[in-house]
Amino acid sequence: xxxxxxxxxxxGAFLAVDRxxxxxxxxxxxxxxxxxxxxxxxxIRMLTCFMPASAGRATVxxxxxxxxxxxxxxxxxxxxxxxxxxxxxxxxxxxxxRARLRGLGPAKRDTRVDEVIQRCQLSDRRRQIIRTLSKxxxxxxxxxxxxxxxPKVLILDEPTIGLDPGQIREARKLIQELxxxxxxxxxxxxxxxxxxxxxxxxxxxxxxxxANGRIDELKGSIAGxxxxxxxxxxxxxxxxxxxxxxxxxxxxxxxxxxxxxxLFTFAIETDGSDVREAAAxxxxxxxxxxxxxxxxxxxxEEFFVQKVAEQGLFKAAGRR
Length: 320
Ligand SMILES: Nc1ncnc2c1ncn2[C@@H]1O[C@H](COP(=O)(O)OP(=O)(O)OP(=O)(O)O)[C@@H](O)[C@H]1O
Ligand SMILES: [Mg+2]
Description:
By secondary structure, this protein is an alpha/beta fold. It has helices at 40-47, 69-75, 91-101, 106-119, 135-147, 165-179, 191-197, 215-220, 237-245, 276-285, 300-316; strands at 2-11, 14-24, 29-33, 55-60, 63-64, 76-79, 153-157, 183-187, 200-205, 208-214, 228-233, 250-257, 263-270, 289-295. The relative contact order is 0.12. Helix 3 crosses helix 4 and helix 4 (106-119) packs across helix 5 (135-147). It has a six-stranded mixed beta sheet, with helices on both faces. The chain is elongated and about 80 Å long. The chain contains eleven helices and 14 strands. The chain starts with a strand and ends with a helix. The chain has two domains: 2-88 and 137-220, Rossmann fold (3-Layer(aba) Sandwich); 228-295, MTH889-like domain (Alpha-Beta Plaits). It is 37% helix and 28% strand. It binds adenosine-5'-triphosphate and magnesium ion. Magnesium ion binds next to helix 1. Adenosine-5'-triphosphate (ATP) binds next to strand 2 and helix 1.
């Protein structure tokens, strides 16, 4: 559905998107992540033919972004970061106007406008002048607009920015629904949301792709992911640490005081084996009292922060 190869964008001399390559298959919902200024919007604008690329290749829905811009724009539902709207029109009027621009015939136009108004829960705002809409409702109008032509591919740039928590939940539900019939590429800073709606993420830092994969895989790849954390009370902490380190499958054990004099935290890094039972048994033999024992779950946020930090180091070392 979307195929991108070495896509590049220079703004003057500034390299905003640096030879990115990725694919999005039919039916996938892919999240585009990255810190502010990473190049997400730039990449999205190139893919939706709202801005020419400097180099590289890309096709969307089988159409080439360089030579078939019109077809790309027709076959993609695009919701930009800041939805440009005709301020003096009413919501319904605006969507009808957009439907006409998209070449929908009069009969189809009205049913389609009704449908998207319903889906985006705009029914009670249909006659409101756009200028007087709140930010969240403007977002909904933008999404309704993107859905008008029932496009196969939806490209959404921060679709839930500015929405209140209730609306975010609604929007998430809507995106999940859309995902069943459309291929979706969306950028977002709201990681729990990305985690709920996306099957895969592509992460950009400073114009480059630094990660591309399934969310659980990426989370599992971060340092310390899946460590077993053990909080226990007892004596000879370092001896216990060494004994834990000698357990089968254990790579490393870090010991730290846990606030009270004989209370300690052991962070056990393994080769992937589950050592919880063996660790508990060992502590019982050594007359330790276990207070807590669990496997640490890494979050997408940790992954994000770690990736950004890593890139900072790489840059400092001149390895970019
Ligand atoms: N028209 C432009 N002219 C010059 N530089 C630009 C232009 N548009 C964007 N940039 C620069 O390109 C880089 C990427 O911007 P872009 O808007 O793509 O980032 P983003 O990942 O969407 O960030 P955000 O999370 O803040 O939306 C930034 O450094 C930005 O300042
Ligand atoms: Mg952006």
